[in-house]
Design brief:
Distance between the termini: 35 Å
Largest sheet: 6 strands, mixed
Shape: globular
Number of domains: 2
CATH superfamily of the largest domain: 2-enoyl-CoA Hydratase, Chain A, domain 1
Order of helices and strands: EEHEEHEEHEEHHEHEHHHH
Strand order of the largest sheet: 1-2-3-5-7-10
Length: about 260
Amino acid sequence: MSIEFDVQDCIALITINRPERRNALDADHYAALSDAWCRVRDDAGIQVAVVTGAGDRAFCAGADLKSWVGRDNPLSELWLTQKDSLLNRGLEVWKPVIAAVNGACVAGGMTLLLGTDLRVAVSGATFSLAEVKRGIIAANGGTQRVMKQLPYAIAMEILLLGESIDADTAARWGLINRVVEPEDLLSTAMEMARKIQRNAPLAVQAAKELAIRSQDMSLADGLRMEQFVNRILHHSEDTRLAREAFAEKRQPQFKGN
């Protein structure tokens, strides 16, 4: 299986290692990727995840069409909504996820990107949702998240034209955070991960969840939920450790409790 998973210093590195197929995903790879995201979600020893692709051609080309064309899926699978859940399809992962985009980020690769929180890309990366050119739509959140993350007209341009944009354009539109040279890609993503890892894990996860849920709540409801979560965090061990470290003028060693 070509989904590599490595953990060091509470940071998980997930690599889609199938460069000969532009890191495209067949059913087995999607299932393995689902397992990787579940591990990130459930393993208390992981605080941040970085996802990237192998090689220098593609981050992920989405579904491996050769393996899906002609595949007979029973209609009953439409109601197996929790089967092989992904970061961008139904799985709630409140630990931050950073995408290190090493090349073409298209179709399902783009929808994967839209499920991440921070994004670094090489200068030669390209981005597209070209499904309309093949008679289908950008699924797994493609038509949903792009509208929430980009201005209306820009999101529609990406969805309806199906054309590629370059890394500089993606950064200008706010789709990605930074554009770097290829040799700096993984080190930049890992440095961002380390900065997150030094923060209080419970507070980081709470901040992510509150921010994402705010998109579907009224401001009044969001503010109230924020109050409750902050009150809970005030009684956490991490908050006590932060107070002690501040008084002693040192970096706190958070425990995630």
